[in-house]
Write a structure and sequence with these properties.
The structure is a homodimer of 315-residue chains. Chain A is mainly α. Chain A has helices at residues 3-17, 23-33, 40-51, 57-82, 93-97, 99-117, 123-146, 152-177, 182-209, 212-215, 221-224, 230-237, 244-251, 259-269, 272-291, 298-312; strands spanning 86-87, 90-91. In chain A, helix 2 crosses helix 6, helix 4 packs antiparallel against helix 6 (99-117) and helix 13 (244-251) crosses helix 14 (259-269). The two termini of chain A are 28 Å apart. The interface between A and B is large, with 44 and 44 residues.
């Protein structure tokens, strides 16, 4: 089984585990799973597994499926809170089945993560930690938006918790599944962490300057809700520490009253997008440096390619 | 550590595990946990543990906390879907912190269940199964209400999944923590299952005839939403298989246009409440019969007392 076969097997494992005699749960789960996605977290896990000598990718498939399913569960719940209408080029579960079933589908996916992870003993500890951090990150974000306190420092906490923690766990779990020694587990965890930070920053930049057709979702949603953009805006305009709500209010009268267009123009003109990209690039350098502590080989090369992809992706 | 000390320790374990540097998650979690509740599921687990020779109740505390926390997580999410305003005599998380934070608090509690269960290896398998069934039961209920298809058969499926599965798991986990032999694990599982069915039926009856002050929540909420009452109504009126929506529509013109009062009067006059109670009593007999397969002792007596309490409780 090669990497692409393992990714296909991961998708199949997710589809298999969500089978249910309750039709709406199975249908809504299949809807979001089969919409695809980049499967970045499973890729990290598989490559980390191989990079420390793991041979049988099939062994790692259930854990890869679990980590992607955690991510998927949070997407379903995010779309409730954000009123997102399109995700991965499809109608969101919330839009198609309504809030009650979206909430229950997210819960269902969470419980299925348990089912997948149940046989994996100690691996559950770091898995659980990452999942807790993820929800904490989402909550920090919601609180910062609500209280209008989002600034660069809080943004970094949010990104670390909501995205980097699960990337880190994926890399570490891959290593642990191959019974890697602790220094290798730690190096891969560091790689995952920095990669996750860069990934989320790029994601937030794409929310501003991305193409909605390529993205498979609406752009500007996060900006409109006061999320994501802060880091980039701060960087370009010296507003560090100032809340995005203030910024949106300031901009509300220009660009035909469309705050998204106004922010976008300001961010581009002020060089903030460029600055955000430079931060992401610096983080990718750090991710790659962590890989220097591993024995070289094709899987480590694969992890470097993945890091390059995270930076270069247009969607 | 005796049973009451173990219950106190369970509450403390729940409070300890929800500590977070994200204030709203900790506050909202503490709000619902410290509101109390009957702690029926932990009691079942502890008594099952003791009934097969378990000595050190402290060993069972984290698992008891996990099972109560799963239940608590679903309450928080239920109150979003049901727009419940009062729970356990307190404002609901949804009412106090709003939907976004209620959703995230429920998710947070789910992730903390993972954390608590992570060290327990194989026990996670039956735990995960019960949690999946719980969400399936909630979903069946929501689907039946939405599609106006709630009838006696579907009601029984719902009750089995959303309540009896977790009661069953609690009893089995208690036995497994004491390394009980399989026939004892099975007998306790059966006890838990029948007890759970009876518990939910009594709960639904109390939603109709209960005292809202004693209950610590609004009564009639489930009836108003077309849930719960079906079994009792069917029993008293021969409407078996007819959906509750039809019944509510029929009754809408009497009792001053208040369908809850109308249904309540009809149910009492038609003997449906009495019939529901007889069903619950029969299930409690079955629960107690399962206990006959265990070595007699004070913990088995405690399980019988718990069964009697489930039937007799007024709130």
């Amino acid at each position: 089984m090669n990497l692409e076969e393992a990714i296909i097997a991961t998708d199949q494992a997710m589809l298999d585990i969500v089978e249910s005699d309750v039709p709406v749960l199975q249908e809504a789960s299949e809807h979001i799973i089969s919409a695809g996605g980049k499967r970045v977290r499973p890729r990290i896990l598989f490559l980390a597994y191989q990079s420390v000598g793991g041979i049988d990718l099939e062994r790692a498939v259930p854990v890869a499926a679990a980590i992607e399913l955690v991510h998927t569960a949070t997407l379903v719940h995010d779309d409730i809170n954000d009123h997102g209408k399109v995700r991965r080029g499809r109608t969101t579960v919330n839009e198609k089945w309504g809030r009650t079933f979206a909430l229950l589908t997210g819960d269902y996916l969470f419980t299925k993560v348990y089912s997948l992870m149940a046989p994996y003993g100690d691996l559950n500890v770091s898995f659980a930690e990452a999942t807790v951090a993820l929800v904490e990150g989402e909550t920090l974000q919601a609180a910062a938006v609500k209280n209008n306190t989002l600034n660069r420092e809080i943004y970094q906490q949010i990104v670390a918790k909501k995205t980097a923690s699960l990337f880190r766990a994926g890399a570490m779990l891959g290593a642990q599944l191959a019974d890697a020694e602790q220094p290798y587990v730690d190096a891969l965890g560091e790689y995952g962490f920095f990669l996750g930070l860069a990934f989320q920053i790029v994601d937030d930049l794409l929310d501003i300057v991305g193409d909605s057709t390529l993205m498979g979702k609406e752009v500007g949603v996060d900006v409109g809700q006061g999320k994501g953009v802060t880091l980039a805006y701060d960087a370009g305009n010296g507003h560090s520490g100032e809340s995005i709500g203030v910024v949106v209010a300031e901009l509300d009268d220009v660009d035909g009253g469309d705050p998204f267009q106004a922010i976008k123009r300001k961010l581009i003109e002020g060089g903030a997008i460029e600055e955000g990209r430079r931060m992401a690039e610096a983080l990718i350098v750090q991710a790659n440096q962590a890989l220097d502590r591993l024995p070289p080989g094709p899987a480590v090369d694969g992890l470097r390619d993945l890091a390059a992809f995270v930076l270069e992706r247009q969607a």
